[in-house]
Amino acid sequence: KKKAKIAAKTASKQVKSAAVLGAGIMGGGIAYQSASKGIPVVMKDINTAALDLGISEAIKILNKGVQLGKVTPEKMAKVVASITPTLDYTTLQHVDFVVEAVVENPKVKDSVLQEVEKAIGSDAILASNTSTISIDKLATNLQHPEKFCGMHFFNPVHKMPLVEVIRGSQTSDDTIATTVAYASAMGKSAIVVKDCPGFFVNRVLFPYFRAFSQLLNDGADFRQLDKVMAAFGWPMGPAYLLDVVGIDTSFHCVDVLASGYPERMSALADDAIEKLYQAKKFGQKSGSGFYTYT
Ligand code: NAD
User: Fold this and answer.
1) CA distance from start to end of the chain
2) Which domain of life is it from (predicted)?
């Protein structure tokens, strides 16, 4: 009975316009996905080069669709036109929903979230695409933690069906309902999960990455391990997947998880991921990581 009462009071709102903060691998992908499902999106970054890259990634995906006959040139033009790149917050005033997808650094996210909260309307929902950082931790300095939650997409956004919606201790039922509805409107399957470092998927995935880097410390070869995991039936091995995710992002994720679960996961110490990070070999996005990309 109590459940039915709560359900009756919960209302999802239709998201008609959105914004994405950060035009990187994830921000660019989320902006494309929203625009391709007819929900226009403002894409905000701190530099023009990143915005150009975000738009060109969307164009790449759409071009492939046109070549395969799945997307018409008219639809392509419409989708591209509904992504508005920007370097400032003023255009965010009228959007219904904001997804923060800047670097996986708690300090940077904290200041970006506080800045954006001042720039958006009082009804707008703010969600973070953080991979690992606790939603309650990110909500600490927000004025409206009830309008804040996690919305964790996977990479590449246009191909991966799952979205984790993370409920912080102060997140309202309406915020969760609207976020799930927005994920569905974007063609995704949402699961609602409790808040903790790493949520569900990365609590499973990162111990696997950690075991992989420990095997490398023991003298294993990353190419061989990738081949073995492919033979095991996984779509790609751990080294290639780390390059796709981004070595910098993975480095920060291990950091958050090792402090969240010190008894289960050791911090990086002189291992392959840390060495690549220090050498600024961030994976596919920087042209080299475990592998080299041209
Ligand atoms: P990325 O390095 O590709 O992009 C980050 C972008 O944020 C860059 O374009 C950078 O210029 C921009 N940025 C930095 N500071 C900013 C600011 N103050 N305002 C606006 N933009 C700013 O990183 P990414 O892989 O897209 O990751 C973004 C977020 O998504 C992280 O929290 C990450 O953990 C999460 N995530 C990543 C993956 C993945 O596979 N890469 C998957 C799921 C979630």
Assistant:
1) 60
2) Bacteria
Give the neighbor-by-neighbor strand order of the sheet with 41-44: 83-86, 41-44, 18-21, 97-100, 125-128, 148-152, 162-167, 189-194
| Position in ligand 1 atom list of the atom nearest CA 282 | 2
Question: Interface pTM (ipTM) of the complex?
Answer: 0.98
Domains belonging to the chain, first-starting first, are: 2-194 (3.40.50.720), 203-286 (1.10.1040.50)
What is the CA(217)–ligand 1 centre distance, in A?
A: 28
Tell me which amino acid residue 112 is.
V
24-34 pLDDT tens trace: 999 999 999 99
pTM: 0.94
Task: Determine the Cα–Cα distance for residues 1 and 14; give it in Å rounded to an integer.
Answer: 27
Query: Going along the chain, which residue ranges are E strands?
Result: 18-21, 41-44, 83-86, 97-100, 125-128, 148-152, 162-167, 189-194
Distance 131 CA to ligand 1 centre (A): 10
Residue ranges around ligand 1 (CB below 6 Å): 21-27, 44-47, 50, 101-104, 108, 112, 129-131, 152-155, 245-246, 249, 285
